[in-house]
Every structure is written in structure tokens, then in C-alpha cells.
Predict the 3D structure of the following.
Amino acid sequence: MDRLYIFDTTLRDGEQVPGCQLNTVEKIQVAKQLEMLGVDVIEAGFPVSSPGDYNSVIEISKAVTWPTICALTRAVEKDIDVAVEALRFAKHKRIHTGIGTSDPHIKYKFNATREEIIERAVAAVKYARRFVDDVEFYAEDAGRTENEYLAQVIEAVIKAGATVVNIPDTTGYCLPAEYGEKIKYLVDHVDGIDRAIISTHCHNDLGMATANTMSGIINGARQVEVTINGIGERAGNTSLEEVAMILKCHKGLGIETNINTTKIYPTSRMVSSLMNMPVQPNKAIVGKNAFAHSSGIHQDGVLKNVQTYEIIDPHDVGIDDNSIVLTARSGRAALKNRLAVLGVKLEKEKLDKVYEDFLRLADKKKDINDDDILVLAGVDRTANHRIKMEYLQVTSGVGVKAVASLGLNIAGEHFEACASGNGPVDAAIKALKKIVNRQMTLREFTIQAISRGSDDVGKVHMQVEYDNQTYYGFGANTDIIAASVEAYIDCINKFKD
Ligand code: KIV
Ligand code: ZN
């Protein structure tokens, strides 16, 4: 079997979707999930584009171990300098630099000549190679670049030290046969092509991203650039789950990936819910209806033997009772079953009450995740924690200083402290720091509502730095100040000393 490298760009090209931006804590969550999924490369951002992207590349580099962390740049020295700095903590690092090569890009974007574009491309690759051994070059709009000229560009950048050459169909224009021929042309005409890996990067403007990617693979590409759920600007990018499952179903192609396909569905749910971006119900592999047989004839066939209408076992993509989406139409049994999977067993009376709350929540929030269910069931996530909050009282308002008094139980002993602060969260955290006297810094803090009502449960995610390490904490409470203190305590409970 030939190995195909999976380059995930959910956190770069995928995150360019308007309104779907993630904060650093959320990006780290996704990156860790991608690591579990088995991707080879994570494109973590475009560091020069914003301080948020710069910071995310740093934090993702610290948080993951196995995948290569990649940072995007233009063919500009300043971009490369900033990317090098952002990648300083990555265990395996790659710079992804490039320039437009199609005639419209050369003429309208750069007002340059073809020769000048090659010079800039070569200079950028050479410059990046001064800092890292792994440099990927992208020929933006390669889909509409004449093959002969594209081959010249690719030959020049490989000579300059590019280890991977990316052939983006930036506008999603190519037909599958045309894109495949382009890859084949490069394989046949570029001197030194065997010293680099050819990568596909296909957009879905005409709904051909996956077909084009497959055509690229069949013709010699050995890296694919993909996103979870196919998210990305405009009509999106090639979806990771489609390529991974095509290769699993069509073993005859002789190509394998490192993807643990049973993590596909949980990863899809996580990305969809963090980005607030629903997956279309009929989306291949991960859509709600992808495995739902509704017509009588199909149901009859599947009941006799699943092979009649199913080419994929839903368990292979991680769909089991645990990952069935709970909605307002789910019954008590489905909720009970999900709670059991989460390790929670409730008496009948308590289950009835949780089910009522669940239905109310499901009315407001279409897609209920495991976090929400645990909150509804009142599960004490802190049961085994060394530090627990015993009480918290806060006075705050307009024109008065916020004051908090906090009681903690630390390994069975009671401690308390009072503090004032710039707002109730600040006061409560200052009281916490009086008891737990360590040099810790709050780096990121997000509050999310579950159902968006005024009686809602607030979920807090925090990132706290201590002793050069970053810790992530979670808290959930109808009182958002208490949820914030819980999240901070959750971080402290994870400190190594
Ligand atoms: O679509 C594209 O051309 C890109 C490049 C920046 C790689 O995303
Ligand atoms: Zn792209």
C-alpha cells in the first residue's frame, strides 16, 4: 500500500468562513482532536495575518505532539520571519509559502511577468529553507495555470528546496479529468519531482472538490489538503472524511492513510458545534441522514442484510449509540442510553425530570452535545478533585466595587478569603488567588450560553498559564461567576505539583 499524507487545514482555510472564527482555546481543542484522528499535518494559521492567528500557531504547537504544524505565508520575507517565530515550539514544523501563478493573478494581483513570479517563488522557498527543513510551496490558482508554465515553476521551487508542492484549484474550476491530467503532467515533465511530494488542494465551487482530489491521488499526488465537514471559504474545501472513507472502501487503489476513521464522527460534531456551523443532513459520511434508511424498501432490505444498501458500517466512522444526535424528537430511552454511555445512571424520578429539562432545551437548541447532557443531569465533574468550591458570594453592581468571598475545600481542609476587584469575576478570582497563592496568569476566558435564555447554564472555558505550562479548564453553572471560578479551579487541579 502507498501512504497518503493528510494535511488538515480546518484551522486555516476552514476557519476563513465568515462568522465561524474560533478562539485559541477552541482551536486547541480541535487540534488535539485532529491529532487523535491521525492527521499528518495541521495547518494552524497564517501568523502574519493577525495576532490571533500568530498566537494560535504558538499554542497549537505547544499542545500537540505528533502532527507537523504548518504556518501559511505569502512569498514575502516578513511573513516567513513571523511564521518562523510562531512555530518555535512545534516539535515538527513546516512553512507553507507561495504565490499566484495563473495569468489573472500574475497580471492583476502582482502586475508582474511570469519570470518575475518564478524569481519570487524561488527566493521565498530559499529564504524559508534557511529556517526549516520542511518547506511546502503553493502555486495559487494552479487549477487555471497553463501546465507548461506550472511545470517550470514547480521545477524551480523543488530545485530551491521545496519538499512538498501544492497544486491548488483555488477557484474550484477544474474538471476531475483535467485536474488529474495536471498532476500527471507534473509527474511526467518536472525534473526532480521525485524529491518532493505533490499535494492537492481543491475547492468545491462546482461541487467537484472530492472528485478532483481523488483524480489527483490516482495520478500521483501523495498529500491531500482537506477540512473537516468540507468547511472553507465560499463552497468550501475537500472534506477529509470523504477522502478517508473513499480510500477505505476502495482498497483496490492501494493507498492508505493514518486516519483512525472511528474518530471521524466525533470530530465532525466537535467542529460543527464549536463553529456553530451545521452539517447539511445529506452530507456524505457525517450528515444526520447519511446512514438513515427511510424508505420501506430500503428498510426491508437492510433488516434482511445491511449489505443490501450500506457500503459503510456506521461504526467505522464512529457512529454508535453514543454519537446519535439527540434532538427534540428523541425519546426518554435515547436519553437514558446516552447517559449510560456517559457513565451516568439515574433513578426513574430523576430521569423524568432531566428528560423534561432536556425537551425544553432541545426546543431552543437543535443539537445537544454530551457536555449539555451532563450539565442537565447535574453530574458533579469535580467529585475526585483535590480542590473544590464550597461557597461563593459576590456583591457587584453599578457604582459599587465588586466584592467576593470564597470558601474552598482543599484535600479535606477548609479555606476562605475575601477580595474586591474590577467586576465580579475579577473579585472572585482574586479571592481564589489569595487561597491558592501561585504565579498563575489567565490567558483566555470564554463564556458560552447553552440555550441563550436568561435562566441558562453558562459554560466557561479557560486557559491558565503556570510554570511555563498552559492548562485548560471547564466550568458550567447557572451562575456565570461560579462557572468561571470552577473553570479556574479545574485548571489548578491539573497543575503537576
Ligand atoms: O486555495 C488556495 O489557493 C489556498 C492557498 C493559500 C494554499 O488556500
Ligand atoms: Zn484554499
User: Anything to note?
Assistant: The mean pLDDT is 91.
